[in-house]
Amino acid sequence: MNAGETGRGGQMAAEIAEQPAVLDRLLRDGVAEIAGVARLVAARRPRFVLLAGRGTSDHAALYAKYLVEVRLALPAGLVSPSTMTVYGARPDLRDVLFVAVSQSGGSPDLVDSLASARSCGATTVAVTNNPSSALAAGAELHVDVRAGTERAVAATKTYTAELLALYLLFAGVAEAAPDPAVAALPDLAAGLLADDAPVAELASRYRFADRLVTTARGYSYPTAREAALKLMETSYLSAQAFSGADLLHGPLAMVDEVMPVVAVVPAGRGGRAMAPVVERLRERGADLVVVGGGDEVGARTASGEAALPLPRVAEELSPVLEILPLQRLAWHVAVSRGADPDRPRALSKVTETW
Ligand code: F6R
Q1: Bridge partners (DSSP) listed for residue 96
Q2: pLDDT tens, 56-99?
Q3: Which residues contact 164 (CB under 8 A, 6 or more apart)?
Q4: Which atom of ligand 1 approaches the CA of 53 most closely?
Q5: Cα separation of 115 and 36, whole Å?
Q6: CA distance 70 to 144
Q7: Ligand 1 centroid from CA 160, angstroms
Q8: Predicted local confidence at residue 3, as pLDDT
Q9: HEC profile of the chain
Q10: Is the pTM for the entire model greater than 0.70?
């Protein structure tokens, strides 16, 4: 946390700043537990993975979907809890792994859909920040993300902890050693958060924006989604996230010279797949900023265009870092508009849906 961030938005700023320590704690204290859960899951040899979550945790679940499909070569899908909670569906879930992700472990639809999934034959895992939650109690297996109590309404440290926990979980299920680069994440995160000036400068561009688009592909698509959510809930601007591919299938038409666009471009295949998207955005004259460790970002910086370069890590790990400056961006935009990002209007810390 920087000096002067103890007033409005002080909680969110403190929790953003805690993330290097949270990642470090998970790597020190959580790895053995996660490896144990992964072994039990692997022994069941699931044929399909269903993931459930809401809001920020839904974005962590989306990240896990890419991990499962790419690294485990298993089909995966995001659950629509209403099929079970509203429509009473009871699908045959034998040989299915059902993973519910929730910092609080408290939303009734997640608790109920996990219970239904368990009764329908799925192996159930809860990934939460609350081991005494109803979700953790209802699941056969539990992963504690150990982020410490999160008080600001806008989830930050629980998101990156969920991402890392899911990365470790699915590396274990794949019976692969985690990339040794995970050990560097806490220091890389600390370095990134220490360099706040470019983010503050970017935030000043968006102070009066009323709409914005975020976009990415692959593992970083959840980053685009989560950045848009953070901006919407703290700064009240209309932020829409699109996969880079989907953006070209229609929404590109609404992009003009005054439309701010944040494109997340990591190093790796997902980042390379963004090259034609960035090209089309340039052609449209969008007010474009690229964020990430990809070549595109370096090239833009070199040519004096707006960019937030990030450290290069394996693409699957990059979402843990990418979101940090974007959380800070949402914080800055909110505070500069006179909003309190700790207490967004109309929201409470635990949202109950059915
Ligand atoms: C966003 C936010 C909410 C929660 C959502 C799910 O910053 O905090 O969108 O992520 O209500 O909450 P949990 O993870 O407790 O199930």
Answers
A1: 48
A2: 999 999 999 999 999 999 999 999 999 999 999 999 999 999 99
A3: 23, 26, 27, 145, 182, 185, 320
A4: 16
A5: 22
A6: 24
A7: 13
A8: 43
A9: CCCCCCCCCHHHHHHHHCHHHHHHHHHHHHHHHHHHHHHHHHHHCCCEEEEECCHHHHHHHHHHHHHHHHHCCCCEEECCCHHHHCCCCCCCCCCEEEEEEECCCCCHHHHHHHHHHHHCCCEEEEEECCCCCHHHHHCCEEEECCCCCCCCCCCCHHHHHHHHHHHHHHHHHCCCCCCHHHHHHHHHHHHHHHCCHHHHHHHHHHCCCCEEEEEECHHHHHHHHHHHHHHHHHHCCEEEEEEHHHHHCCHHHHCCCCCEEEEECCCCHHHHHCHHHHHHHHHCCCEEEEEECCHHHHHHHHCCCCEEECCCCCHHHHHHHHHHHHHHHHHHHHHHCCCCCCCCCCCCCCCCCC
A10: yes
Percent of the chain residues topping a pLDDT of 70: 98
Q: Which two tokens stand for residue 167?
A: 């990365």
Per-residue confidence (pLDDT) for residue 295, from 0 to 100: 80
β pairing state of 123-128 and 96-102: parallel
Closest atom of ligand 1 relative to the 156 alpha carbon: 7
351 lines ligand 1 (CB under 6 A): yes
Ligand 1 touching residue 56 (CB < 6 A): yes
